[in-house]
Amino acid sequence: VFPSLAQAQASVANEVYQELGQPSVFLFCPTEYCSSLCSPSPSQSCYLLTIGQELLPGIGVIWTGPKVVSQELSAMQLEEVEGVLRRRPVIWDNLYANDYDCRRVFLGPYMGRAPGLMSRLHGLLLNPNCELQANFIPIHTLGSWFRSELRSCAHSDHAGMETVTALEDSQGSEEGSYSPQDALELALHDWVAEINRQALEPGR
Fold first, then answer.
1. Cα separations in angstroms, 109 against 16, 142, 144, 150, 179
2. Is 94 helix (H, G, I), strand (E, B) or coil?
3. Domains identified in the chain and CATH numbers
4. Cα torsion at 125, 62, 42, 6 (round to 10°)?
5. Average pLDDT, rounded, for the chain
6. What secondary structure letter does DSSP report for 177?
7. pLDDT at 115
8. Percentage of the chain lying above the pLDDT 90 cut
9. What's 66's DSSP letter?
10. Structure-derived torsion over alpha carbons of residues 69, 124, 66, 13, reported in degrees to the nearest 10
11. 96-123 pLDDT, tens per residue?
């Protein structure tokens, strides 16, 4: 029925999206969801070019970066993907994922993501460690990164200043750009406090 896999996928996704009344959040994960899966590259992939052309503009497209588990993400990489998909990608960040290797637990801070990425994203999802308690530092430091990105956006666009001010009032103002080490120390401080709080609960 369809001349290519990409056209088949886009057609089905578009039909489901429309049948559901075009919801505000509707995500599509392409077969080529990172640069290493693209042939020869994201900007020259016939598959991604077709997805970008055929998929309705309200549908978000998931992307993991250069690799399935990307150690770094840059604005230049995301700009290339945005060009071929004709929309900003939704990053599915596998930095902390360990479902593929149960011996791996990543307790470090959110890092390797260049400043200014937020303006190139439609959204960001964090794929966590399978062990619930191991995700305190990942999620806490992601929050620090996010607030830093909000402040950066606010400096270039004052429209977001009220949101930034509200966040800083509730979380405390942090000077300068995002520092993984500073974010880690803040997360560890709060994690110890949370552990101590739980230790005092009856039955613990």
1. 38, 8, 10, 18, 9
2. coil
3. 5-155+178-200 (3.20.20.80)
4. 170
5. 89
6. S
7. 84
8. 75
9. S
10. 100
11. 999 999 888 999 999 999 888 988 999 9
**What's the confidence (pLDDT) of residue 151?**
87
- Tokens representing 60 are 């978000």
**Nearest in space to 20 (alpha carbons), one of 66, 54, 58:** 58
pLDDT single digits (tens) 56-72: 999 999 999 999 999 99
Is residue 53 a contact partner of residue 84, using CB atoms and an 8 Å limit?
A: no
48 contacts 84 by C-beta, under 8 angstroms: yes
Q: What is the mean pLDDT of residues 9-13?
A: 98
DSSP code, position 50? H
At position 18, the amino acid (one-letter code) is Q
Burial 155-167 (b: 16+ CB within 10 A, else e): eeeeebeeebeeb
Beta strands in the chain (DSSP E): 27-28, 60-63, 90-93, 123-126
The closest alpha carbon to 45, from 67, 30, 62, 29, belongs to 30
Q: Sheet of 123-126: strands edge to edge?
A: 27-28, 60-63, 90-93, 123-126
